[in-house]
Amino acid sequence: MNIRTFLLDRLAYLLLYAINLFVILLVIQLSLFHSHQPLSSSIVFYIILLSCTGLFFVLVFDYIRQRPFYHKCDRLYTGEPSFEDMYIQGACTREQWIFERLLERQHAHYKQELFRYRKQQEQHRHFVQRWVHQMKTPVSVIDLLLQQANNGSRDNDPYRWLTSLQEENEKLAHGLDMMLYNARLDLFEKDFVPRKTSIVHMLRSLIHEYKKLFIRTSIFPKLEADQEEVIVETDEKWIRFVFQQLLTNSIKYSSRADKRSKIVRVVLFQNDQGWHVRISDEGVGIPPQDVSRVFDAFFTGENGRAFAESTGMGLYLSKQICDRLGHGLAVTSEHGKGTEVTVSFYERAHLYHDANMTKL
Length: 360
Hints:
Blueprint: H1 3-9, H2 11-34, H3 41-78, H4 94-151, H5 158-184, E1 195-198, H6 199-209, H7 211-216, E2 219-225, E3 231-234, H8 236-254, E4 262-271, E5 274-280, H9 288-291, H10 301-306, H11 314-325, E6 328-334, E7 338-346, H12 352-359
Parallel strand pairs: 2-4
Antiparallel strand pairs: 1-3, 4-5, 5-7, 6-7
Helix pairs in contact: 4-5, 6-8, 8-11
């Protein structure tokens, strides 16, 4: 800031000072006029000179005092933008101090948002890499099956060949769904449609959808409900994806258990808080040290190292979706005996659209 800009910013104060000086001289003149004493021009000159001299030194002192602060502002404005040089220090007035604090808060908020976006980007990159690596397995198996079919080695057992092909196709479909919902999660508010939903009907349709998978893995699904019709308010598409993840996890880890006859129970029950859906299996369970981390992104734990198909994203996405829907999601497990996952539909929970309407 040069001296011209400095004076222009204080033009109103300078005009007020000049008017005030004129009024003072006028009052003195009127006072002396009633006393029949003239006001000499030399006295007027000295009064104006002393006042302007005092004003000059005050302005010079104020300019020198504030020049470093304005110089930093000009340097940031005209120079190359730098992330670390956004801090401005050396405030000498209350207004500049407030501006400095506001800029620091904005800078801190910007750093937090930048860190969050970078973390999301890194998480997305990591997820894509693991997803691609996981998808290569069924693609390779399908390619091998097709080569065997072309060579005629599968002609004597076409049913088994088709079953294997269907298994790998289901893995591909499951992986594509996970990638799709992970991409949609960032735009959740644009893809959210709450409505009254029949949970019993949805769970029955999902069990029917996975009927072949249940049969193939020798697992018996059992649906139990206190009522024939249970209606909750939720987004049917999002909550359906959550139940898909929970059921496929139960099937996957139950199929590895050392039991001939295994059951996956889906139980609906109600209490003072609302309706709850508990999905329990008789699978390998989760080690105690891993239970508290099952909702972390990419966490697979001991089971993930034992089962190469684990991505560590299924329960993470399910938790993120339930949190945004206002539903609860909890996991309890006993290693070697099975796992219970409970989805809670709270009666007084605010769904995502309610929270946004309040903000608006």
